[in-house]
Write a structure and sequence with these properties.
about 130 residues, mainly alpha, about 70% helix
Length: about 130
């Protein structure tokens, strides 16, 4: 699935969760959104810096400011960390709220075109 398809599925789960997922739809939505972000970064690194694909996501996020502006890198980092935290189930923690999930979904939706633009900018400079 493409990152956009994953985000579509996350949106469906967020706004119309099925009865079978009544207790876990929040974490399922967080997981789909995080995978969309990770896949978007993987596609980007494949073109821009292939060696980063093998690195842990924390390292990829640390390298991101070298390729995009600081606000885009910060948005990616905060979204990924928030989604990662939301995915882990602890009996003493509540599941993420709808507004948190919507915010992360919105952030990743904004990030994917920026990552694609970074890939396209790299491809045009390589062909010059």
């Amino acid at each position: 699935m493409t990152p956009e398809q994953l985000l579509d599925e996350a949106s469906t789960l967020l706004h119309r969760p099925s009865r079978s997922m009544r207790r876990c739809w929040q974490r399922g939505c967080a997981c789909l959104t995080r995978v969309a972000l990770e896949q978007g970064l993987r596609i980007c690194w494949d073109q821009v810096a292939p060696s980063l694909i093998r690195c842990p996501m924390r390292h990829q996020l640390l390298a991101l400011p070298a390729f995009v502006d600081a606000s885009t890198a910060l948005l990616a980092r905060t979204a990924w960390h928030g989604l990662s935290r939301a995915m882990h189930h602890h009996v003493y923690e509540l599941a993420p709220t709808v507004s948190e999930l919507e915010g992360w979904h919105r952030d990743v939706t904004r990030l994917l075109p920026q990552l694609r633009a970074m890939t396209l900018a790299n491809n045009t400079t390589d062909s010059d």
